[in-house]
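user: can you give me the structure for this one chain? C-alpha cells are fine.
assistant: on it. calling the predictor now.
[tool input]
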Amino acid sequence: MLRSFALLALCLPVLAFADGLPSSPYIEVSGHGELHVAPDLAYVNLTLEKTSLDAKAARADVEARAAKVIALARELKIADKDIKAPAVTVYPQYEWHQTPSGDGKQVLVGQHVTRSISLTLRDLSRYGALADGLFAAGVTRLDDVVPDRSDRDQLQEQALARAVQDAHGKAEALAAAAGVGLGAVYRISEQEGSRGPRPMMMAAMKSPGAQQPEFLNGEIEIDADVAAYYLIGH
C-alpha cells in the first residue's frame, strides 16, 4: 500500500545527480494538506452583450444595463473597489450564408457589443438580492460565481503545513517498512496547481416572480501539495 503514495529510492552513494537530488540513498515522498472552510465572500462574473446593425444603439443598450448593474452593486453596499467594469468592446459579427448557386459568403449580421463586469460580494447574505437584481437589470450571462475566503493566504499556509506533516509521516512509514532510519530533510518543494479554493454549488438566477435565488452556504476546499526528499539515516 505504501507504494501507492510514495517512492522509496535507494541510490548508490557514489552516484551523483545533475538535477540536484542527493548523491546518497534517499526517500522521496509527496504530501497533501487540505482545509474545509465556509466561504465569506464570492466573486461574481457576468457579461452584458448586444448585437445590432446599429452599433450606436447596441452600445447604448449595453451601457444602460451596465449602469443598472453598477447601481445595484452600490445599493447592496458593494464598494467601488470591488466593482470591475472595463470599457465595452465592439466587433463585427458575421454569419455564413449559402447562396442558391451553392456558393457561400460571409454576411454581416451586426456589430457585437460586449461589456464584462466582476463583483466581489463580501456579504453573502445579499447573494439572493444580487442575483435577482442582475436578472432584472438585463444581464446576458452570469458566467460564474467563485466562492473564496478573505483570509485565504493564511489558510493556504495552514494547508501547506499539513502537507509537510503528511509527507513526513509517509517518509517515516516508508523508512520503517524498509528497516532503515529516517535522516534529515534534503529538500521540500511546494507543487504548483493546488492553490486556490475549489468551487461550491450556488443557486442559478431565477426568472422574475420566482422565489429569490438561494445562496448554498457550503464549504470550500483549500489544499496544498509538496514533494520532499529525506536522506536515509544509519
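assistant: here you go. The first strand starts at residue 6 and ends at 9. Strands lie at 6-9, 26-37, 41-52, 83-84, 89-98, 104-121, 141-148, 181-191, 220-233.
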